[in-house]
Amino acid sequence: MAEYYKKLNPGKKVAIIDWDIHAGDGTYEIFQRYTDVLTISTHRHDNGTYWPFGDSASYKHIGKDEGEGYHIFLALNG
Questions:
Q1: pLDDT digit string, tens, across residues 46-78
Q2: What is the phi/psi pair of residue 59, to 5°?
Q3: Mean pLDDT in the chain?
Q4: Which of these, 39, 41, 49, 40, lies nearest to 77 by C-alpha position?
Q5: CA-to-CA distance for 57 and 30, rounded, in angstroms?
Q6: What pLDDT sits at residue 78?
Q7: 3-class secondary structure, 18
Q8: φ, ψ (nearest 5 deg) of residue 18
Q9: Which of 14, 43, 53, 57 is least surrounded by CB atoms within 10 angstroms?
Q10: How far apart are CA 75 and CA 66, in angstroms?
Q11: DSSP 51
Q12: Predicted TM-score (pTM) of this structure
């Protein structure tokens, strides 16, 4: 859907907000290098002991290469 929107609206930016119990790691994997798509995921993390385990859902996911700083993982512990 984000790609379709961008195709119809060149130059516009997109925000994807995922607020369920699991990390939006699949969405992040797709858009991690984009600078015109902001991804935000708030999810349970429990210091890496909740699925997806380890670092794959940690707060460290902020984007890669030119997309660094365009992505937010709010990994909740508790």
A1: 999 998 888 888 999 899 999 999 999 999 997
A2: -65, -10
A3: 93
A4: 49
A5: 14
A6: 76
A7: strand
A8: -120, 115
A9: 53
A10: 23
A11: S
A12: 0.86
